[in-house]
Amino acid sequence: MEPFQYIHSSRRTFLVDMGLGFTGMALGAMLAKDGFGRDRIVSKGLVQSPARARSVVWIFLSGGYSHLETFDPKPALNKYAGKTFDKTPFDNPVNSPLHRKRFRSVAAEEINVRDVYPTIYPMQIGWKKHGQSGIEITDWWPQLAHHVDDICFIRNIWTTDNDHAAENQIHTGRHRLDEQQPSIGAWAHYGLATMNSNLPKFAVLGGPTRSDTRQSIDSYYLGPQHAGVPLAIDPLNPLPFGQKIASQSQAQQIREYQLIHKLNALSALEYPDDKDLLARIHSYELAYRMQTSVPEAMNFASETSNTTRLYGLDNPATKLAGERLLAARRLVERGVRFVQVFPSTYGVWDSHQKLKDNHTRLTATIDLPVAGFLKDMKQRGLMEDTVVVFCTEFGRTPGLELRGGGKDGRDHHPNGFTIWMAGAGLKKGIVHGATDELGYNALGDGHYVTDIHATVLHLLGIDGKRLEIPGRKRLEIDHGKVIQDILA
Fold first, then answer.
1. In a 3-state reduction of DSSP, which class is residue 10?
2. Could you report the per-residue pLDDT of 402-439, keeping only the tens digit for each?
3. What is the DSSP string of 397-417?
4. pLDDT at residue 216 above 60?
5. Which residues of 160-195 are buried (b: 16+ CB within 10 A; e: fewer)?
6. What is 45-233+298-486's CATH number?
7. Domain boundaries, the chain
8. How far apart are CA 155 and CA 72, in angstroms?
9. What percent of the chain has pLDDT above 90?
10. Which of 78, 148, 365, 408 is 20 to 30 A from residue 462's alpha carbon, by CA?
11. Which of 439, 333, 418, 346 is nearest to 144 (CA)?
């Protein structure tokens, strides 16, 4: 047996070891507030100045809402209802080169006709113009309609996955058959310094919606420390395993964490390239700091009754979405960089059948909370430095879905759909882009989902083209293109 030998640490190793302790955490927080973190990022060449926004609230509706019955009404669907595409005066959209260019079915094309149902299905709700801008949205959004003059609607988004892996694709930019990429929230986390060392930079409310949608908040090769942190709307237990046991004193817990950090620091020196280990060290530090700050952020006791009613917390139908959006506002107020909100559960907007019943019920759960969120953010001045993104994974088919004897629904439709954005650095009360007369194809080049990513990163002051990791070459489509026409 070899005799035990002391390890003679270098001055640098000693300082690193000290930096991993709790005093180092305090020092790091002060340095970050003094701009140290930003200097580190500038040295990477990621930041472009000035940033128009400091935070993002990304609202995602799982399942694929119908763009035709929400934000892109098409009168032609009613006029030619029951006719096939080739019986209208318009070019058959299935024959368009845009359809062929963007079509990427997982199943063989000859057996998968999901997005080419040819019999036109009429709109299931009325619509009208709203605001000074005269933007048309459907009657299912009476509260949101009051805010159209603050919103930029983008009606020419497209993607390629025609099944629910598109929930991941809109967040990562990659089709399920390709190598996966970090999510948009993870890239924002990687590229930005913290504004509050006691809260995660990338927080998630209501998601991921299932285990197979973890990719929508994941960080992959960036390292697990950049992944989204799911939080619960429960001040007593907002973070799994994030509270000390009742029998443990504060001093005892501090000593426990100090011991853990000493042991982890020794391992980190021995295995400096172990990203999981470094992420674990970071998570222990962050978990300790979050023990008091996260419960406070999730505690609505300080909110007035007017505010809670504004978000619909007094109504069981709107309470779930309202709580998550109110929590998002509170997190942004406290310096969280990226808040990803799932205001409804997995797949509920997937209206293969009974679209009218489904969307009537679901918009009633979302409309008031989202409108209340926008109003609250605006009156607090938070929209001046926050970007709000409201999106889904794809639209719905202009044609009637026929599978299983369908008679009142629409299938998945990645060829063209609508999202909207609002807030810092964006034009207000505009519609950008369009789909064709039947709402089938996004016209022109359209915008692939990573164009949304590029625009968000640009508003945050990050040059998305420089987000590259050695050995991980990103494709041009991964970077996307900033949607210049919507910038203020």
1. coil
2. 888 889 999 999 999 999 999 999 999 999 999 999 99
3. -SBPP-GGG--S---EE-SSE
4. yes
5. bbbbbbbbbbbbbbbbbeeebbbbbbbbbbbbbbbb
6. 3.40.720
7. 45-233+298-486
8. 7
9. 68
10. 148
11. 418
